UniProtKB/TrEMBL annotation:
The protein's name: Probable membrane transporter protein
Signal peptide: none
Localization per record: Cell membrane
InterPro entries, per the entry: TM_pro_TauE-like, TSUP
Main subcellular localisation: membrane
Organism: Paenisporosarcina antarctica
Membrane topology: Multi-pass membrane protein
Transmembrane segments: 7-36, 42-60, 72-89, 95-112, 124-148, 160-180, 187-209, 215-234
């Protein structure tokens, strides 16, 4: 049964990542934590997310805002070491509660039509928060999604810039995770088995992306975030 759940999680998360630019980590991490140890779940997520980013980067490079990308990377260098320290001191329940509160808080701000003016300094701060969340829980998406949604960024630019940033942040976070927490065969074997499912998800996600308009894209984002946040909150309180 666990293998079928694993396949379903990877397939749906891959489709979301390809079609929205942020869905894999937000959806996959909470549910992988139910099947694997925290270190395993986070590293599997990082490996597969890195593969997805590499696979898509050539097709979406025209949508990347390189100025914002550079500032995100600069900011993330301060957030990465903070994130791994958080991971080392938190247990699974607190980890899930923390993730759920972050996701639900983000969703509330989006529904309330949170707006923010983009600046260079804010780009760096958002990059730092994203770096912290990536090395701690393997989930860089929430700060980026809130920031881009708050500035009404076009869905193509959102997807392109976040995927480009993920190439850097996932690789650095995986290296940091392996150095500070180690790794094991389960992580790499599970990731290898998941690769065919990921590529199926990439294909389906590209088709879906072409048919999503901006309004549906926003509503769909709210639904995914609410579902994931509430589910994790329930699991964290058990």
């Amino acid at each position: 049964m666990d293998i079928f759940i694993f396949i379903f999680i990877i397939l749906v998360a891959s489709i979301l990542q390809t079609s929205t630019g942020f869905g894999f980590s937000i959806l996959a991490t909470p549910f992988l934590l139910l099947l694997f140890k925290p270190m395993e779940a986070i590293q599997i997520n990082l490996i597969l997310s890195l593969v997805i980013s590499f696979a898509l980067i050539i097709k979406i490079k025209k949508d990347i805002d390189y100025g914002i990308l550079k500032r995100f990377i600069i900011g993330s260098t301060s957030g990465l070491p903070i994130g791994i320290m958080i991971f080392l001191v938190l247990d699974l329940k607190n980890l899930m509660l923390g993730i759920s509160l972050i996701i639900l808080g983000l969703t509330l701000l989006l529904i309330l039509k949170f707006r923010i003016t983009q600046t260079r300094k804010k780009d760096i701060v958002v990059g730092g928060l994203s770096g912290m969340l990536t090395s701690s829980i393997g989930m860089p998406g929430p700060p980026l999604l809130l920031y881009f949604s708050g500035t009404d960024t076009d869905k193509s630019k959102l997807r392109g810039t976040t995927l480009a940033f993920y190439l850097f942040i996932y690789l650095m976070s995986l290296i940091i995770q392996v150095i500070f927490t180690g790794t094991n065969k389960t992580i790499w074997i599970s990731s290898m088995y998941a690769l065919p499912i990921v590529f199926i998800g990439l294909f389906l996600g590209q088709i879906l992306f072409k048919s999503i308009n901006q309004n549906f894209f926003r509503i769909f984002t709210y639904i995914i975030l609410l579902f994931t946040g509430i589910y994790m909150l329930i699991e964290g309180w058990k």
